[in-house]
Every structure is written in structure tokens, then in C-alpha cells.
């Protein structure tokens, strides 16, 4: 009897092993064989999306036959943590393997048409609609317009036909909260109510990929969460001896650094100058703060500062107040925030434009005055050249 039981158990084990082998073989074939899609579809992978949620959505849309195969295959290939946020085109007959490659490769989303909405500093936002897969491998500009202008015919027709378009909102470093909200409220591809202006400096300038009809409030929330994370991380890794009582004070100085220089390599040096001045109890004496006190970030000043404006005491006139202004004057990017948290080790206390787009730095007032004379000479030569043209 024992022999009979052992024989039956052995036979059952063989059957199970054959069954498992067959199941594995079927799963591998299902993972790689062409999918059931008859024509391309577009899917969105949200931030924090999972393979499980994606597999269910793909089954519902008829893109794959078996979600379990996708989940097991993704786990085996260690792709579960590699999903990239974005919108993607899934071509007809794409296999599960093909789809996983598309959504984990990231980079440029697979939409044929891409509209980039550029939120600029001190100028209206601009939308540029491009078509991909041109014969020379480069995008072709189909239409462009500035916010407030009539929509181009090509863009209107695509929207009427509900052509899938990938939208990207690109916010420039140094844009004010008012400028960002004005641009988002004017964006025809976004949904939701018009927004009020949030606190200055609270949004991280970046490129945000959105779907058509996405809520404006969701875009702002995404940028706000990102800025909070950037500030918290930089604050935790800050250098010793900084004259900040809170992360908000550091954010304020980062916004000044952002407005003072467009040269990325100078940010830490400019931050070092301001840190030195604060540590010595010196006034910051920076024009962008005075300008913000006048415009509140709603428009460019459009002219030079007047002597009366430089001598008038306001909360933002750092030629008068011996401290930081009460808050940020723009939305600084990650690099400006990191620069004020870890400024360059320098003895410099002054800087002035050098005519190349950068600045000349000085540790003494004598050297600084010499640099100012050089800059004024450059300005005079430029005015003369402009007058002769």
C-alpha cells in the first residue's frame, strides 16, 4: 500500500510539474505575443502609478488579454518601480513586453502632437504646438501663439476633432506667482475655476506634463508640493553659520539670487555675497527687491529705478532696511535654493554687471567702485552704438 501511495504521489508530482512548466511556457508566450489592439490608444501613467493599476486599465481598454501576466512579468523583470509619469501612445498589436518598455523607458511621451506652454518671466505665456516623427527626426512647429491672441486655425481644428495632444506647462525660474496664475488661468487646455494668487515663492518652477482638461488647481498643487520637498531637503542639508531663522527666510534670499543672476554658475557666488552682507549686518542693496515693492510682481517695471524710489522706505527696499524683505520676490528654482543653503566660501561683499551677462565680484568697496566705473563705460558705449543705428 505504501508503494502504491508513493507511486500515486510521484505521478501527481510529475503532472503538477508538467502543468507548471506548461503554465510558465504559456505565460512567457502571452507576455511576448502581439496584443489584441486593432488601433493605437493613449494612456496616462499618473504620478505614483502602479503596474497593478495600469494592467487593470489596459485590460479594460482591450490593450492586453491578461493583467496577471503583466504583473508577474513586470515583477520578474524588476520593472515595478520603474514606471515613468506621463502620457503614452500604445501602438496597435503592442505586446505586454512592448507596453512595459514604453511606460518604463520614460523620456519624451509618445504623443504625435505636443503642445508646450511656456510661462515666461516678465512676458506673456506662449504655447507652441509641434508634430513629432518628422522625416528629418525633428519636431515640426504647426502653430504658436501668445496668451491673449486668437487661437491658430490648426490648433482649433485639432481640438474640435479631439486629436490627442500631450500638454506640457513649463514655468521659468524667477517667474512670480501672479505671472504663473495669470498664465494658467489663460490656458485654454486646462479646466477648473480661475485661481487666486498663492504665496510668492511657494511653487517650484519646472515642466509639468498634464492631460487636456486637467484642473488648474492640480497643477498648482503639484508645483507647491514639489517646492515644499525641495526646500525641506535643502534645509536639512544646509551649511553651518547661515543667517536664517527659518526655511522661509532662506527661500526669500533664494528668490533674490534667482532674480539677480541668470548665470547658473554664479548662483553660489551671489548667494555667498548676500550671506556675507547679512552676517555683517550690511544692507543687501539689491534692485529686484525694490522693483518688487513697486510692481508686486504683476508686471515688469519697464524702466530704470528712480532715485526717489531707491530712497523711499518700504518693506522691500533693501537699500533702506538692514535685513531681508518680508518674503520672496519670485519663485526660485532648485539650484537657487541649494545655492543659499550651501553658498560659495568667499570674502566678496559686492558685485556688479560685467557686460557679458555675468558679474564682477569684489571684496572691497574700492575694487567694487572700479568695477562700477567699467560697467558704466560699457553702458555708455552701448547707448552710443544704439543711437548710431
Query: Total number of helical segments?
Result: 13
Sum up the overall morphology in one term.
Answer: elongated
Beta-strand content estimate: 5-15%
Kindly, what is the distance between the CA atoms of the first and last residues, rounded to a whole number of angstroms? 111 Å
Protein described:
This protein has 389 residues and is of the alpha+beta class. It has 3 domains: 15-105, 2-Layer Sandwich (Dna Ligase, domain 1); 113-231; 238-388, no CATH class. It is built from 13 helices and 9 strands. It has helices spanning 2-32, 51-60, 67-76, 96-105, 153-160, 177-186, 216-236, 247-260, 267-279, 287-295, 307-311, 334-341, 365-388, and strands at 41-45, 86-90, 113-119, 126-131, 140-146, 165-171, 207-210, 350-353, 359-362. The strands form 3 sheets. The protein has a 5-stranded mixed sheet, covered by helices on one side. Strand 8 and strand 9 form a beta hairpin. The model has no long low-confidence stretch (mean pLDDT 86).
How is the topology of this model organized?
Elements lengths: L1 H31 L8 E5 L5 H10 L6 H10 L9 E5 L5 H10 L7 E7 L6 E6 L8 E7 L6 H8 L4 E7 L5 H10 L20 E4 L5 H21 L10 H14 L6 H13 L7 H9 L11 H5 L22 H8 L8 E4 L5 E4 L2 H24 L1
Parallel strand pairs: 3-6
Antiparallel strand pairs: 1-2, 3-4, 4-5, 6-7, 8-9
Helix pairs in contact: 2-3, 7-12, 8-9, 8-12, 9-12
Provide tags for this entry.
389 residues, alpha+beta, Dna Ligase, domain 1, 3 domains, two-stranded antiparallel ribbon, 44% helix, 13% strand, elongated
Compose a concise summary of this entry.
This protein is α+β, with helices and mostly antiparallel strands. The protein contains 13 helices and nine strands.
Amino acid at each position: 500500500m505504501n508503494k502504491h501511495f508513493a507511486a500515486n504521489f510521484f505521478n501527481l508530482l510529475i503532472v503538477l510539474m508538467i502543468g507548471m512548466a506548461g503554465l510558465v511556457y504559456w505565460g512567457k508566450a502571452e507576455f511576448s505575443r502581439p496584443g489584441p489592439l486593432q488601433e493605437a490608444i493613449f494612456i496616462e501613467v499618473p504620478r505614483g502609478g502602479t503596474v497593478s493599476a495600469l494592467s487593470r486599465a489596459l485590460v479594460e481598454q482591450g490593450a492586453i488579454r491578461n493583467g496577471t501576466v503583466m504583473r508577474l512579468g513586470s515583477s520578474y523583470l524588476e520593472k515595478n518601480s520603474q514606471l515613468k509619469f506621463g502620457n503614452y501612445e500604445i501602438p496597435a498589436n503592442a505586446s505586454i513586453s512592448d507596453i512595459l518598455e514604453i511606460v518604463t523607458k520614460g523620456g519624451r511621451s509618445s504623443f504625435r502632437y505636443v503642445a508646450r506652454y511656456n510661462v515666461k518671466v516678465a512676458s506673456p505665456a506662449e504655447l507652441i504646438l509641434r508634430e513629432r516623427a518628422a522625416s528629418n527626426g525633428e519636431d515640426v512647429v504647426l502653430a504658436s501663439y501668445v496668451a491673449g491672441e486668437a487661437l491658430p486655425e490648426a490648433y482649433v481644428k485639432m481640438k474640435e476633432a479631439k486629436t490627442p495632444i500631450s500638454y506640457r506647462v513649463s514655468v521659468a525660474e524667477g517667474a512670480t506667482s501672479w505671472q504663473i496664475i495669470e498664465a494658467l488661468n489663460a490656458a485654454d487646455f486646462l479646466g477648473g475655476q480661475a485661481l487666486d494668487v498663492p504665496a510668492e515663492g511657494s511653487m517650484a518652477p519646472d515642466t509639468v506634463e498634464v492631460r487636456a482638461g486637467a484642473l488648474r488647481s492640480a497643477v498648482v498643487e503639484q508645483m507647491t508640493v514639489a517646492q515644499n520637498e525641495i526646500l525641506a531637503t535643502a534645509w536639512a542639508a544646509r551649511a553651518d553659520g547661515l543667517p536664517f531663522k527659518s526655511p522661509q527666510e532662506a527661500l526669500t534670499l533664494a528668490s533674490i539670487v534667482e532674480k539677480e543672476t541668470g548665470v547658473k554658475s554664479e548662483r553660489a557666488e551671489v548667494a555667498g555675497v548676500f550671506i556675507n552682507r547679512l552676517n555683517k549686518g550690511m544692507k543687501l542693496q539689491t534692485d529686484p527687491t525694490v522693483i518688487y515693492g513697486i510692481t508686486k510682481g504683476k508686471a515688469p517695471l519697464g524702466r530704470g529705478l528712480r532715485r526717489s524710489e531707491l530712497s523711499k522706505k518700504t518693506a522691500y527696499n533693501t537699500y533702506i532696511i538692514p535685513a531681508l524683505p518680508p518674503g520672496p520676490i519670485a519663485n526660485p528654482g532648485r539650484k537657487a535654493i541649494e545655492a543659499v543653503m550651501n553658498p560659495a566660501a568667499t570674502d566678496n561683499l559686492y558685485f556688479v554687471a560685467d557686460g557679458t551677462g555675468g558679474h564682477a565680484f569684489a571684496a572691497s568697496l574700492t575694487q567694487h567702485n572700479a568695477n562700477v566705473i567699467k560697467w558704466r563705460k560699457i553702458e555708455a558705449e552701448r547707448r552710443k552704438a544704439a543711437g548710431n543705428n
